[in-house]
Specification:
By secondary structure, the protein is α+β, with helices and mostly antiparallel strands. It has two domains: 101 residues, Beta Barrel (Lipocalin), CATH 2.40.128; 90 residues, Nuclear Transport Factor 2, Chain: A (Roll), CATH 3.10.450. The protein is 32% helix and 40% strand. Helix 1 runs parallel beside helix 3.
């Protein structure tokens, strides 16, 4: 074998060895970081437990930073009573959901705003023989609090629509997001200030977009910020600002 070929083989083997070595270093650092994060999370959860707060849900891992949104409220917002059309016959929740989906398709709702509607509640009231189908508004998989369309559906079809929609647009600013552990510590401090003997179980924690002031019909736009939403089985939902 010629020396040039042997040299090329040796160089290739050396490069491969170096790549494997670099890969092992990166993997080792990742494991150490993951272990440290796990220990930190475990210690926070233990601290919460010692203070009467049990977390019965996985902690989400949000983006490091998130955009601030400008919300533009739909001019058609409000409650509307629907005139029933003959021939409609709804006998189960699936049919009720289909009727609301078809109604949404008929509305002039923007589809290029980054927002999407997803069913958040679908229930049947046997006593009233009514279906309640509620759609929540999302921007890039993050729910926009208090932005929705709620339907009431009878056996004869949709009878009312409660609409409070907002279209979202990133305003160019991004904010660094606090960790769920930090949000839970803030939650604990607030809770213990109000009720030192509180003993609760947290069932869900997530990031949503939320405006600082309640919506009213004369508002055309507002600013929504990333916010940690913490839900428990015995207390009101608590919102913690998610930005540093």
């Amino acid at each position: 074998m010629e020396w040039s070929k042997i040299k090329n083989i040796l160089i290739g083997a050396l490069i491969l060895t170096n790549l494997l070595f670099i890969g092992l270093i990166i993997y080792s650092q990742f494991k150490e970081s993951a272990a440290a994060d796990f220990d930190y999370t475990k210690e926070i959860l233990n601290n919460l437990s010692r203070n009467g707060i049990t977390v019965n849900t996985e902690l989400p891992q949000p983006e490091k930073d998130m955009p601030i949104l400008t919300l533009y409220y739909d001019s058609e917002n409000g409650t509307e009573t629907i005139t029933l059309q003959a021939g409609t016959d709804i006998s189960n929740r699936k049919q009720a959901e289909k009727a609301t989906s078809e109604y949404l398709d008929s509305l002039n709702i923007k589809t290029d705003s980054g927002c999407s509607l997803k069913i958040g509640r679908s229930e049947y009231d046997a006593e009233k023989n009514l279906y309640y189908i509620n759609y929540d508004n999302y921007y890039n998989d993050y729910q926009i609090e208090n932005s929705y369309i709620h339907f009431t559906v009878s056996a004869s079809g949709i009878i009312s629509v409660d609409r409070q929609l907002a279209y979202a647009e990133e305003n160019g600013s991004r904010q660094e997001i606090i960790s769920p552990e930090t949000a839970l510590l803030k939650y604990m401090n607030r809770l213990k200030t109000e009720d030192p003997e509180a003993d609760i179980s947290i069932c869900d924690i997530s990031i949503v977009y939320m405006v600082d002031s309640p919506y009213s019909g004369n508002i055309t736009s507002d600013t929504a910020f990333p916010t940690w939403k913490i839900e428990s089985d015995s207390k009101e939902t608590v919102y913690i600002p998610a930005y540093k």
